[in-house]
Structure formats: C-alpha cells, structure tokens
C-alpha cells in the first residue's frame, strides 16, 4: 500500500497535467474561442458586415481568393461567407502570417487535417461555409489555404484592420 500511494499520486498528476495541456489553446488556428491575435469569434446575436469570399483555381494554375484583400475597422464584426468554386478542396484559415506559416508546416505532415474552428473552415468542391469574426486589434492579418501546395500556388489574402 505504501508503494501504491506515491504511484497513484504520480499518475494523477500526470493525467491532470496532460488534461490541462489538452484543454488549452491548440496549434495556430485551433484556439476554439479564446482571444486570438486577429481577434475573437463573433457573436451571432450582433450585426455583422457580410464579406463574400470565393475560392478557386485559375486557368494558369494559380489558386486564389476573391477578393484578395479586405479592409475592416477595429471592433467590426465580419461574417465571411465562403464559397469553394474550384475543382479541389480548399480552406480558409484566418490568423497572423507567422501562425499560418507554423500551421502550414503541420499541414505538410498531416495534409488531411480538417478545419472547423472559429477561425478556419475546410470546404469540399462546390460547398460553402461561414466564419463570424470580430477584429479587436489593428494590424494586418492573413487568410490562407494551408492544404499542401495551395499557399505556394498563391492562395492567400490580407485583412487590414484600421
């Protein structure tokens, strides 16, 4: 019994620590509701400006968003209405350029990673989705498709918050 108690204490501490680590914010783009560098998930009960975003490939092999640049005011809530008009799956991940770069490396190791986070959506061909986001800080942020090869083919856009 004397040996069991320390072992149980160690196991309990390990499980508690692991649980806390798993409950905290995840990798870039996986904050699940916490304040992120680009802002915070929007409030569906409040008004939002609608910004349609189309994802597609071009005839010359580029992958693009239309529009490629969006300007918003600090505090403004935006409802990004996403449409995949392309011939491949695409995603929309809203974050800083630095966080998206880190996430892009993770996506190279796990290209089938699905996104259905407050700041990210993966869309199949001809599908749509929405992201409701409130921009709480001034700066430049990026929306990008982090599926391997898509970012490199030009699939990124900028949100300028003034």
TrEMBL record:
<feature type="region of interest" description="Disordered">
    <location>
        <begin position="25"/>
        <end position="47"/>
    </location>
</feature>
<keyword id="KW-0186">Copper</keyword>
<protein>
    <submittedName>
        <fullName>Cupredoxin family protein</fullName>
    </submittedName>
</protein>
<keyword id="KW-0732">Signal</keyword>
<keyword id="KW-0479">Metal-binding</keyword>
<dbReference type="InterPro" id="IPR050845">
    <property type="entry name" value="Cu-binding_ET"/>
</dbReference>
<dbReference type="InterPro" id="IPR033138">
    <property type="entry name" value="Cu_oxidase_CS"/>
</dbReference>
<dbReference type="InterPro" id="IPR000923">
    <property type="entry name" value="BlueCu_1"/>
</dbReference>
<dbReference type="InterPro" id="IPR008972">
    <property type="entry name" value="Cupredoxin"/>
</dbReference>
<feature type="domain" description="Blue (type 1) copper">
    <location>
        <begin position="57"/>
        <end position="162"/>
    </location>
</feature>
<dbReference type="Pfam" id="PF00127">
    <property type="entry name" value="Copper-bind"/>
</dbReference>
<feature type="signal peptide">
    <location>
        <begin position="1"/>
        <end position="23"/>
    </location>
</feature>
């Amino acid at each position: 019994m004397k040996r069991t108690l320390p072992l149980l204490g160690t196991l309990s501490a390990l499980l508690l620590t692991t649980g806390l680590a798993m409950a905290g914010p995840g990798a870039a783009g996986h904050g699940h509701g916490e304040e992120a560098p680009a802002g915070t998930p929007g409030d569906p009960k409040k008004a939002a400006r609608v910004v349609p975003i189309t994802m597609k490939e071009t005839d010359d092999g580029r992958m693009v968003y239309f529009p490629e640049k969006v300007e918003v005011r600090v505090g403004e809530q935006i409802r990004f209405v996403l449409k995949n008009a392309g011939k491949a799956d695409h995603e929309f991940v809203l974050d800083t350029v630095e966080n998206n770069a880190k996430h892009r490396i993770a996506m190279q190791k796990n290209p089938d990673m699905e996104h259905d986070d407050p700041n990210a959506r993966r869309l199949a061909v001809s599908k749509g989705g929405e992201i409701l986001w409130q921009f709480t800080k001034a700066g430049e942020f990026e929306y990008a498709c982090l599926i391997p090869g898509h970012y490199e083919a030009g699939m990124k856009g900028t949100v300028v918050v003034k």
